[in-house]
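2024-03-11 09:14:02 INFO worker-7 job=invfold-0412 stage=load source=structure_tokens
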């Protein structure tokens, strides 16, 4: 399968400033009708002996406007029809009395080896709906064809379609084509029709799935990498708001992730209205990426005027809004703004280099790589050079992000070294004073530094704890048919436990419970990343795919020896699906026989092994049944004699829970925790979630 050609999409940017001849030129077409009748086109197996396994059918077919069913017949005499391109470029449309519907016909000589077996019909371009006839028989309908323009649905698919030629030597292909939106497609894309190719069926079927699979894996990995980078730097800003460079860098990387995702979607789209909207979003996102890249470079040197910096940000956002609502009119303004932002970034770096700003050369190298990648992308899309746009974009943006990260790290290290140098100077000055005075001053300084450090750490940990608690739901959802309660107690200021939920459009309730390795700041970062992945992926992936993708993303954060136990519980009425990764068993209390079952699903924590074969289990809950999901902090709670609590005492509480609400069960469990620990603070985080099916009273 050929990759979608973006030449026509890029040409649409300039079509408002060119004559009607330009779209025909970019298609490599003569804009006038062909007068001489071409010979019957021959199709033979040796034509597939190219690297792409494609037979390039000439796109000049016999054509007639209007609509009549007998035009599909191979016996129909079409000798008085015109020969024009199936692309229907503006230059050709100018000579047609086109009202949105017409017929194309082509007679071909098919080699015997290509008859009677599947041949791939490759839809290289299709801007409307059509019916395809082979030797008078309708074999395909592309899109939803109708003579009523309001009922036409344009074709939008990239998979090859199998067709089988009959045993006849001379065969006729007829296409009944309609495009009621031809005025819009002509203005936006520069053509109005379609283009068909033939190819080896098995080869192009395999290439199609391989291409889509390759794009899915590599791009989703790259987008996840960028989002993780954006989240980490945003958290760094949240923990230390005075360092605003982390904020601008986070926004820049976030928009870069959006840009990569939109480009990924654009590569998988055909020349349709969806592609136009994606291309418009691509243009908007490029402006925002450069806007905040410029703002980040300004934030490096504090001597830049704040008013000037904010004006550029407002201008970039304003241009983005205008480009979204008026893409055709804002083409020139957008290109000008993009050029100005690039020049401003280069100017800013040049000024800092001139001022001998330490380390700016690394940033300059990264920006240069990014700009070179953008230029190469444009040249590849214009077919000026060859290359893989995906890898060029990844290389350029990765180089820029790496350079920015190294610069921020180096700048922070330089600040720390400078502070250490100042402290040494103070120490030297103090040593020149009297010995006793020096000792007293050193003790006083050490005391104040220790108090300040303790206050700073306490404040930062409290901020981190507040951030972690703010990420947890304020309360569990009130859903008809479920009684839900939750309890969490952290062992330190910042814990590693996490709970959350999501309501699906079909009414499915998804509950999540997590337990990060250890405690403190790193555990808090893991919780933040897990929450981001959960809400990003919960609507588009099943339980096992979600666990794999979360594990992939957390592993890429490269936080040494940090993992995340995670549990997903999908509830749809009384049917429950449980999937876990390194979490304790779920306790299921059956009201009908007052028994407690352990639902054990083995699995490594997220971030340890991306390809681990996680398991899931479906159970059905009856009236009065209870599910208890918990972290290992409950089972591994120690009493004063260092004996662990285990699950038996917890199960006994569930067995005596008839008539209790989920909140009552939580209260019983917390009292058990207090009694067992003897009132001491737990050594590990304790996280519990109770789901109960209310008992229905018989009337």
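2024-03-11 09:14:09 INFO worker-7 stage=emit residues=699
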């Amino acid at each position: 399968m050929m990759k979608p050609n973006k030449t026509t999409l890029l040409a649409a940017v300039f079509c408002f400033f060119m004559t009607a001849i330009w779209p025909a030129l970019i298609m490599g077409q003569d804009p006038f009708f062909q007068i001489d009748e071409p010979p019957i086109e021959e199709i033979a197996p040796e034509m597939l002996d190219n690297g792409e396994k494609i037979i390039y059918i000439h796109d000049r077919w016999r054509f007639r406007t209007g609509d009549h069913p007998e035009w599909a017949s191979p016996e129909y005499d079409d000798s008085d029809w015109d020969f024009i391109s199936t692309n229907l470029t503006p230059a050709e449309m100018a000579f047609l009395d086109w009202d949105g519907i017409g017929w194309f016909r082509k007679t071909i000589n098919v080699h015997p080896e290509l008859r009677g077996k599947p041949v791939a019909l490759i839809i290289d371009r299709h801007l409307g709906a059509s019916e395809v006839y082979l030797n008078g028989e309708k074999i395909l309908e592309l899109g939803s064809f109708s003579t009523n323009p309001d009922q036409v649905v344009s074709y939008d698919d990239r998979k090859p379609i199998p067709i089988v030629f009959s045993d006849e030597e001379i065969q006729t292909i007829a296409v009944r084509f309609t495009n009621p939106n031809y005025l819009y497609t002509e203005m936006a894309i520069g053509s109005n029709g379609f283009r068909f190719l033939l190819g080896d069926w098995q080869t192009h079927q395999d290439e199609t799935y391989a291409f889509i699979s390759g794009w899915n894996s590599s791009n989703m990995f790259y987008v996840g990498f960028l989002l993780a980078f954006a989240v980490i730097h945003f958290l760094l800003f949240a923990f230390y708001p005075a360092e605003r460079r982390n904020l601008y860098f986070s926004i820049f990387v976030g928009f870069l992730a959006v840009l990569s995702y939109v480009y990924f979607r654009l590569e998988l789209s055909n020349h349709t209205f969806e592609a136009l909207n994606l291309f418009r979003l691509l243009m908007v996102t490029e402006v925002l990426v450069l806007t905040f890249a410029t703002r980040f470079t300004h934030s490096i040197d504090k001597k830049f005027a704040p008013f000037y910096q904010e004006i550029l940000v407002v201008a970039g956002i304003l241009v983005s809004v205008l480009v979204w609502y008026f893409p055709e009119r804002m083409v020139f303004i957008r290109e000008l703004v993009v050029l100005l932002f690039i020049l401003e970034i280069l100017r800013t770096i040049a000024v800092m280099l001139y001022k001998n700003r330490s380390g700016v050369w690394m940033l300059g190298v990264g920006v240069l790589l990014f700009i070179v990648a953008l230029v190469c992308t444009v040249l590849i899309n214009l077919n000026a050079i060859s290359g893989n746009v995906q890898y060029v974009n990844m290389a350029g943006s990765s180089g820029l992000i790496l350079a920015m990260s190294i610069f921020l790290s180096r700048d922070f290290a330089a600040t720390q070294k400078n502070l250490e140098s100042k402290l040494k100077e103070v120490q030297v000055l103090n040593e020149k004073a009297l010995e006793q005075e020096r000792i007293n001053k050193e003790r006083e300084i050490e005391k104040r530094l220790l108090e300040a450090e303790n206050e700073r750490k306490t404040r930062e940990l409290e901020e981190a704890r507040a951030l972690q608690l703010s990420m947890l739901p304020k309360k569990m959802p009130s859903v008809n048919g479920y009684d839900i309660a939750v309890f969490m107690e952290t062992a330190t200021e910042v814990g590693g436990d996490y709970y959350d939920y999501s309501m699906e459009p079909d009414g499915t309730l998804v509950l999540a419970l997590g337990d990060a390795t250890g405690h403190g700041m790193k555990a808090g970062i893991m919780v933040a990343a897990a929450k981001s992945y959960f809400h990003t992926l919960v609507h588009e992936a099943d339980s096992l795919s979600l666990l794999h993708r979360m594990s992939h993303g957390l592993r890429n954060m490269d936080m040494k020896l940090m993992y995340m136990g995670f549990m997903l519980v999908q509830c749809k009425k009384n049917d429950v699906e449980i999937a876990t990764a390194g979490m304790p068993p779920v306790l299921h209390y059956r009201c009908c026989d007052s028994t407690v079952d352990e639902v054990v699903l083995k699995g490594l924590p997220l971030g340890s092994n991306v390809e681990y074969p996680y398991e899931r289990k479906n159970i059905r809950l009856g009236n009065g049944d209870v599910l208890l999901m918990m972290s290992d902090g409950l089972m591994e709670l120690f009493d004063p004699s260092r004996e662990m609590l285990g699950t038996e005492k917890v199960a006994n509480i569930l067995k005596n829970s008839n008539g209790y609400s989920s909140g009552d069960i939580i209260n019983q469990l917390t009292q058990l925790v207090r009694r067992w620990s003897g009132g001491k603070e737990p050594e590990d985080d304790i996280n519990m979630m109770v789901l109960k099916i209310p008992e229905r009273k018989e009337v």
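2024-03-11 09:14:09 INFO worker-7 stage=report msg="Confidence is low (pLDDT under 50) at residues 1-35."
2024-03-11 09:14:10 INFO worker-7 job finished
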